[in-house]
Amino acid sequence: MGKFDDLRKDFPMLERQVNNKPFIYLNSAATTLKPRQVVEAMDTYYYTYGGTINRGVDSVGYEATLAYEAVRTQVAEFIGAKDPNTIVFTRGTTTSINMIASSFGELIIEAGDEIVVCLSEHHANYIPWQQLAKRKGAKLILAPLNDFGGVTPEGLQSVLSAKTKIVGLHHISNVLGSHNDVKRLAELTHEVGAYFVVDGAQGIVHEAVDVTDMDCDFYAFSAHKMVGPTGVGVLYGKAELLAKMPPTEFGGEMNHIVDIYDTSFKDAPHKFEAGTMMIAEVIGMGAAISYIEAIGIQAIHDHVSALREYAVEQLKQVANIEIYNEHNHSSGIITYNHIGIHPHDAATVYDREGISMRSGHHCAQPLLTWLHQPATLRMSLYLYNNKADVDQWIVAAKQADSFLDALF
Ligand SMILES: Cc1ncc(COP(=O)(O)O)c(C=O)c1O
C-alpha cells in the first residue's frame, strides 16, 4: 500500500457508506475531510484545558492562551510571514476579505478610484469589492481572463492605471483551477501604487505559499479546505497596513482603555479579534498544518496532480462530456457537464452511487456567465483520494450518461 493509501485510515468518514455504497468523497474544493489528529487536538482542548484566552490570570486560561498564540506563530511560519502579529484569526476567507474591504477599503477608496477583480473570482472575493465600489462611487474594473480562466501579467497591465487602488485576485480558482502568477501580478500592481489582495482559499491547499517572497499586501484563506476545522481562517496583512486599519468589530479584549466616550484599541492582530474567539478551531487549524507539513505540500501536490491527470483521461472516454478546465493542472478540480443533462440531475446519479460531488454555480456566478453555463459539475480530489475512487466515479459518469439516454 502506498503512502497516500495508508493515510486514508486517518479519515474516519471514508469508512462510512452512503446509499448502501462505499462513500467516495470528491468535493474537497468545497471542504476537506478531517483527520483524527485534527479532531483529537480540538477534543484535547475541550477535555483538558478548555478555558478562554488572553483574559484573567487562571492557569487553564493561560495554557489555552499559549496554545492559541502558538498557532499564530505556526501559521506565520507556514506562509512565510516574518511577524506572527501579521496573522489575524478570522472565521475564514470570506470574513478575511470582507474585513479588508470594509476596513482598509473604506480607509483608502474614494470616488473615481478603481478596484480591479476578474470574472473568475469566488463571490467572497467579488461582492465585497463590488459593494465597496458602489458605496464609494468607485469603479469595479474587470481584468480580462485568458483561455484558462486566469489573469496574465499582460491582462492585468491592460487595466491598471494611476486610478487603480486595489487589485483583488485568486491564487487558484475554485471552479476552473486556474492558477495566477500572484508574485508577478503583485509586482505590477505595486508599480502603479496600488495594493494587491490574494484570495488564497484554494492556493494554500495546493502549493507552498511564501507571502514575503510573493510581496502581496493581504493573503486570505480558510482552514477547512486544508483538513482543518470549519469556522476558522486567516487574514495575513503587511504590518504597516494592519497598523493603519480600524477594527470592524468591537467588544471584549480588543481594547486598551474604554472610557465613557472613547476607546483605545490594542495593536494588530488583537484589535481585530473581538469577543471570545474560536479557540478550539484555531488549535485544530494548528493540528491541520502539522498534519500537512508531515506529508509535505509538494508530495500532496504531486499525488493530486497525477490522480487528476488519470481522471481527466478516463473522463474523456465517457460519451457526451464537456470539460471546462482540462489543462488546468494546479489543483485537483475537474469542472464539466454531461451535455444535455442538468448537473443537479447528474449529481443525483453520482450520489446514488455513494459519490459526493458539487453541482451548481460554485459561488462564482460571473464566471458561469463567462462559461455560458447556468451550472456545472465539479469533482475535486485531495490527498485521501485514489485511483479506485476515480474508477468508481467513471462508473457513475457512465450511468449518468445512460440516464440521459433513458430520459431523451
Ligand atoms: C477561491 C475561494 N475563495 C473564497 C472561498 C470562501 O471560503 P470560505 O467559505 O471558507 O470563507 C472559497 C470557498 O469555496 C473559495 O474556494
Automatic annotation (TrEMBL):
EC number assigned by the record: 2.8.1.7
Q: What is the superkingdom listed in this entry's lineage? A: Bacteria
Biological-process GO terms, alphabetical: cysteine metabolic process
- Domain Aminotransferase class V, first and last residues per copy: 24-392
Q: Which InterPro entries match?
A: Aminotrans_V_dom, Aminotrans_V_PyrdxlP_BS, Cys_dSase_SufS, PyrdxlP-dep_Trfase, PyrdxlP-dep_Trfase_major, PyrdxlP-dep_Trfase_small
Spell out the reaction equation it catalyses: (sulfur carrier)-H + L-cysteine = (sulfur carrier)-SH + L-alanine
An example molecular function term from Gene Ontology annotations: cysteine desulfurase activity
Q: Which UniProt keywords apply?
A: Pyridoxal phosphate, Transferase
Q: Which CDD domains match?
A: SufS_like (cd06453)
- Tell me its cofactors: pyridoxal 5'-phosphate
Entry-linked Pfam families: Aminotran_5 (PF00266)
Family that this chain belongs to: Belongs to the class-V pyridoxal-phosphate-dependent aminotransferase family. Csd subfamily.
> Per its database record, what is this protein's job?
Catalyzes the removal of elemental sulfur and selenium atoms from L-cysteine, L-cystine, L-selenocysteine, and L-selenocystine to produce L-alanine.
Q: Which NCBIfam families does the record cross-reference, listed alphabetically? A: sufS
* Protein name as annotated: Cysteine desulfurase
Report which gene this protein is encoded by. Answer: sufS
